[in-house]
Design a protein that fits this description.
7-stranded mixed β-sheet; 31% strand; Rossmann fold; OB fold (Dihydrolipoamide Acetyltransferase, E2P); 22 strands; 3 domains; binds S-adenosylmethionine; alpha/beta
């Protein structure tokens, strides 16, 4: 259908639903219009700001009838910074939205009709234990901020409501450091400037700061160390060198400037975490997911934890399993997983470094196929074909699929169920790993019939 709407036209519309990114959806003469930051049931006046072949985008210029579910956003940068899409929606309604999102993706993409559990709630703000903050050069001025949604433009920020206090303190110190030392932020068009990103992590009471630089040199590092010392009892400072003109945040090389590799406790396990390793961003939800996954696996089976990160789930499941294997591509994360096994005295855990598309098919060739259970926890793009083929080949008695993208989850489940009639879904549980955003984590427990 041709787009009948034109840019800069104004309309009064009723919002009918929320789209997958948390934006309002309206229709004008049958034509779908996405209206960010509008809620179902609201009557709003909009300005058409974008028209593509089949869809249009409208910007709210007046809320004529607000929804009862509308709340005041906590953050002063809401709508400008692309981090959160749902701060204007009551938290319980966010959980309903995420439950429906998962249900609809399973139905529409996966062709799976299944009752699912209500999305498990989290602390609604100050939950993020990690934040990557871009630092850019704008006309000779160095700006610390966040990217606007779908854009490379940076909005200056001084705090972040979903991360909490530690970010505010780090930004303040970095602003002073930049000013005093005349540090140039990154100019992505010209690939010049020293400082590209500030990556901050909070593990229990430890702060890990990684400065992503274009050169292997941090000027006046003593100043920074002393300033961080005055704010945080326990911190480490790293530099990461990334010279490549890409939007991948981290380069391959890390150097410890101060402190030591972070150690924490997760569900009774001592865990060491290098800055290159993946960690779930919400401690409360992470523990709930790990608990449920551990309950779901059967005793005395071989567990293969595919996409295993720093090996936390591999280590936790090893307490119940005959043997747990962790398969992970990032070598620093595999080192962390090996260290986890060592410092916790775990003997029945093996970590394998490499692309799971290669390591999983190789591993399953060697195993006794009658007693394997598999955990899949892939990145947003989901599992590769080779991984799904290898899963079916080993015919595990259980598959526990954990996903931060319910669209690729649904796609992969469709592939699994099309290729085998031997499986059925036991449970679908969404978890609110990312409150205030439109993202949701989902765990699906699948058993062999
Ligand atoms: C969503 S994280 C899950 C990590 C871990 N399960 C946890 O709970 O912390 C996905 C992990 O998959 C890893 N990864 C990405 N592509 C991979 C591949 N092709 N083969 C193996 N691991 C991969 C990433 O480095 C990351 O550690």
């Amino acid at each position: 259908m041709e787009n009948s709407l034109k840019k800069n036209e104004e309309y009064e519309v009723e919002i009918l639903d929320l789209g997958i990114n948390g934006e309002g959806i309206a229709k004008i003469n049958g034509q779908v219009v996405f209206v960010p930051f509008a809620l179902p049931g609201e009557i709003v006046k909009i300005l058409i700001i974008n028209t593509k072949s089949k869809i249009a985008v409208g910007k709210v210029i007046e809320i004529i009838k607000p929804s009862e579910d509308r709340v005041n956003p906590v953050c002063p940068y809401f709508k400008k910074c692309g981090g959160c899409a749902l701060q204007h929606l009551d938290y319980n309604k966010q959980l309903e939205f995420k439950t429906n999102l998962v249900k609809n993706n399973l139905k529409n993409i996966g062709k799976i009709e299944k009752d699912i559990n209500m999305c498990v709630s989290s602390q609604a703000y100050q939950y993020r234990n990690k934040c990557s903050i871009p630092v850019v050069d704008i006309n000779g001025e160095t700006i610390i901020g966040m990217f606007r949604e779908n854009s490379h433009k940076v909005v200056p920020i001084e705090k972040c409501a979903i991360c909490g206090d530690y970010i505010e303190k780090i930004i303040k110190i970095m602003q002073n450091y930049i000013k005093l030392n005349n540090i140039q932020g990154y100019n992505e068009e010209k690939n010049i400037g020293l400082l590209r990103h500030i990556v901050c992590r909070k593990l229990n009471n430890q702060i890990i700061i990684t400065l992503v630089l274009t050169k292997n040199f941090l000027p006046n590092s003593d100043y920074l160390i002393n300033r961080f010392k005055s704010e945080f009892k326990n911190f480490s400072l790293w530099i990461n060198i990334n010279k490549k003109p890409t939007n991948v945040i981290l380069g391959d090389e890390f150097k410890l400037v101060y402190g030591e590799n972070a150690q924490t406790d997760i569900m009774g396990l001592k865990v060491s975490v290098s800055p290159a390793s993946f960690m779930q961003v919400n401690d409360e939800i992470r523990d709930k997911i790990y608990n449920r996954a551990t309950e779901a696996i059967s005793s005395e089976k071989i567990v293969i934890d595919v996409y295993s990160g720093a090996g936390v789930m591999t280590g936790i499941t090893s307490k119940k399993s005959k043997h747990s294997y962790g398969l992970e591509i990032v070598k620093e994360a595999v080192k962390d997983a090996d260290n986890l096994a060592k410092i916790n005295g775990i003997k029945n855990m093996t970590n394998i470094c490499g692309d799971a598309s290669i390591t999983l098919p190789k591993l399953v060739e060697k195993l006794d196929k009658s007693c394997v259970e598999i955990i899949l926890d892939p990145p947003r793009k989901g599992c590769s074909k080779e991984v799904l083929d290898a899963v079916l080949k080993v015919a595990p008695s259980k598959i526990i699929y954990i996903s931060c993208n319910s669209a690729t989850l649904a796609r992969d489940l469709k592939i699994l169920f099309e290729q085998s009639n031997d499986y059925e879904i036991e449970e679908v549980s969404p978890f609110d790993m990312f409150p205030q955003t439109a993202h949701v984590e989902t765990m699906v427990i699948i058993k062999r019939k």
